[in-house]
Amino acid sequence: MDIISQLQEQVNTIASIAFNAFGSLQRDAPPVRLSQNYPDPPPPPATNPAEDASNFPDQPKIMSAALVKAAKQFDALVAALPLAEGGEEAQLKRIAELQAENDAVGQELQWQLEASEKELKQVQELFREATDNCLNLKKPD
């Protein structure tokens, strides 16, 4: 996989971790009293003891560690990108060279395609003649 695809994949990973972290925090955060004017929040519904809110304080640490790890991997991929050499003018010159090379190869492929199509027509004609000759042959009496 090329570096750009790896960067895209890492961005998707970071977005997924952030999405899951925010969703988990929203889902599992204990209710907070906004003001003294409001009544006390209702107690949380009874859940599975294995998913008790007691492990809630550890969740942000785990999720933030995963997010930091993914961000460091992204930074490492960015650092592995090749540096632009010579500035914009050199890049435009290189693009023009590559475009000219691409055009030349495209022209060569077009010539090969035309030659192949001519050869295919010749082979089809020869095949047609051969099948006609075979069909015109009569079995000996």
From TrEMBL:
| Transcription regulation listed as a keyword | yes
Mind listing the GO biological process terms from this record? regulation of transcription by RNA polymerase II
Superkingdom: Eukaryota
Disordered as annotated region, ranges: 30-59
Locations listed in the record: Nucleus
Key words, A-Z = Activator, Coiled coil, Nucleus, Transcription, Transcription regulation
Keyword Transcription present in the record's keywords: the answer is yes
Coiled coil (UniProt feature): 106-133
Output one GO MF annotation: transcription coregulator activity
Matches recorded under InterPro entries: Med7/Med21-like (IPR037212), Mediator_Med21 (IPR021384)
Family under the similarity heading? Belongs to the Mediator complex subunit 21 family.
Q: What does this protein do?
A: Component of the Mediator complex, a coactivator involved in the regulated transcription of nearly all RNA polymerase II-dependent genes. Mediator functions as a bridge to convey information from gene-specific regulatory proteins to the basal RNA polymerase II transcription machinery. Mediator is recruited to promoters by direct interactions with regulatory proteins and serves as a scaffold for the assembly of a functional preinitiation complex with RNA polymerase II and the general transcription factors.
Assembly and partners are described as: Component of the Mediator complex.
Which protein is depicted?
A: Mediator of RNA polymerase II transcription subunit 21
